[in-house]
Every structure is written in structure tokens, then in C-alpha cells.
Amino acid sequence: MSDTHNSQHAHGGHGFETVAIHAGNTADPLTGAVVPPIYQVSTYKQDGVGGLRGGYEYSRSANPTRTALEENLAALEGGRRGLAFASGLAAEDCLLRTLLAPGDHVVIPNDAYGGTFRLFAKVVSRWGVEWSVADTSDPASVRAALTPKTKVIWVETPSNPLLGITDIAAVAQVAREAGAGLVVDNTFASPYLQQPLALGADVVVHSLTKYMGGHSDVVGGALIVADPALGDELAYHQNAMGAVAGPMDAWLVLRGIKTLPVRMDRHSENATKVADMLSRHARVTRVLYPGLPEHPGHEVAAKQMKAFGGMVSFQVEGGEEAAVAVCDRAKLFTLGESLGGVESLIEHPGRMTHASVAGSALEVPSDLVRLSVGIESADDLLADLQQALG
Length: 390
Prior knowledge:
Elements: H1 16-22, H2 64-77, E1 81-85, H3 88-99, E2 105-109, H4 114-123, E3 130-134, H5 139-145, E4 150-156, H6 168-178, E5 181-185, H7 190-193, E6 203-207, E7 221-225, H8 228-241, H9 247-258, H10 260-279, E8 284-288, H11 298-304, E9 311-316, H12 319-329, E10 334-335, E11 345-347, E12 368-372, H13 378-389
Parallel strand pairs: 2-3, 2-4, 4-5, 5-6, 10-11
Antiparallel strand pairs: 1-7, 6-7, 8-9, 9-12, 11-12
């Protein structure tokens, strides 16, 4: 697996784990508090008309707790600017309205989060942005989907919920040749396992709700960019549109990020054990996990990721009803949407997270079960899945 992972984060020469704890987390100058305070404030006293103290005037424009998170995010992804939003979809919406105009075209993946697809298909398309679907795991498929009006290529890797892997560097080359921007949703991997900007992406998107927060207690989103000028443009739109992360939410994500490396190590370790067990189970017809040698994206994932993450999907004998029954019988795996928390979750994408893609090119198999493998005892998780499968 990638040995370049820490060297890509030359934050004063420090390793990722150090950066996760210290970037943006300067001690409070007033009290010496080692954790950034929650600045639960809307407005700031100015030093005379137009004299902003530390650049703060109104918390939609900037808030010190959010600033700490945004600095941390930029450092973790090796970017020049980080921006924190009220949700992952708020971040995506700001990005698309900043980059696109009526008549522009976007290439989207044939496997993606249902909310992202809904944003393109039902919202952005209403103001004249066109999109087409490509298998992003095949750079030739992406190239074939391009038009002279393509401005953005959108990638998720690993993808949701089929755990497809896209070669970021290869698709970055396609994007460069086309004069398009490459956006990578890095939610499933987190910057601990994968850094898309170092592989040629222009923008990284996160749902901070997931692994970055890590405790199922906050909703948030982020954009991280390599180009400071694009960062300024996004910041202008972030302020103009207003879907910013609140101070308490920013603080919770910052707290979560401090343990991101140790959590991701355990998520990946547990998910590997789960995938191995499922691949040997008589009632399981297919296991989708990039850590398995038979996964079609295994070699690319091993090249661009530090480990293979905590998400596992699998298909079961007996079709949709059997898949739903497995979800219903699980006890330790909580039936629920979302992912990336310390507790394990199970869901049926066709009826739950991906209902919005039914009937589209992104429709998911009806016999599919998706797991967010938590950090509990691996033996307990394996036992629960075995009883759920019957």
C-alpha cells in the first residue's frame, strides 16, 4: 500500500496523526485552553467603522471555531483552502453553483451517493446544466462521456454503495486534457487513507457527518481545493449563499478528526475480517470490498489508498426480500442510514439511502446490503452477521 501517505502532508514535516491533532488547534490566547473555544456568537465588536478585529464581523462570513476546522481540513488534504458547510450536500451545492453556468455539462459516476445524483438530476438540471453518466473506474468511459461543454468530472472512490474504485491520477489526466475540473468525493476513504489533491484532483468533497466526525452526532460538509483563487471564489459563494457550518458542529468535527487515524485503522481492520467471512458464506453471492484480491479495483486501491476502509457491501441469495430480512435480523449492526460512526450500521440501499436513484442508470441491485463496519470487537460483529444471514 501507499508509502507516500505521510510525505504528502509536509505540514512542518509532521506526520498525518500529528497534523490531525494540531492543525488549526492553536491554544486559546486568552486562557491557554488547548481546545479551540466554541465561539457561539453571531456578531463581533469592530475597532472603529470598517475595522475588523482578526477579520471577524459576522459569523456567516467567518467564525473562529469554523476557521480552526477549515485550517485543519486544508492541512489534512494537503490543500490551500478548506471550507466547512452545514452538510455534505450544502458543500456540493456551493461547489456546483460556483463552477457551473447554464449550458455547461458534467460527467457523473454510474455509482454514487443518491443525494448527489438527486442534486444533479432534480436540482442543478433545472437551471440548464446537463449531465451524463460514465463508469469512472474506466478512464476510457469517462473520456467517451465528455462533450465540448464538459466543465466538471465528478468521482467517488470508493463509491457508494458498490465500492467501485476509480484511478484518480488517470481520470485527472483525462480532465486536464479536456480542460475540465476533477472533483473527488473522499467521504468513504477520508484523508487518512487517500489524498486526491496529491493525485491530481482539483477539489475534494466530504460529508463531515461520516468518518471525519466519526460519532454519529453531527452533520457537516467540506470542500478543500488546491488552487487559492478557486478557494477565494468558493469562499465568496459560501458567504453569499450562507450554508455554513455552525460553531458547535465545527467543534464536534474538529474533536472527531483528532482520533481519525486510530479509528480508520480499526474500521479497516474490522471490515477486512467481515469481508473475508462474508466471501466464504454460503448465502452470500458476492462481496464488494476493495481489500479483497478479487475486487476489480483492488490493485488501484492498493496503489492510492493506505488501507481499504470500513465500508463493505454484499449480495445475498434470495433477492430483495432476503436482503431486507438480513437487515431486520441484525442486532449489533444497527439498522440505519449514514455511515462512518464508531458503531456498526446495516442498511438496504435500494429502499433506504439510494431510493432516489431507482429507475436511473445509478439504480442499485435489490439484493444488496451495505455495512458501515464500526470499531467494536470484530468477533462480535462476525457473530452478529452470521446469525443475521441464518
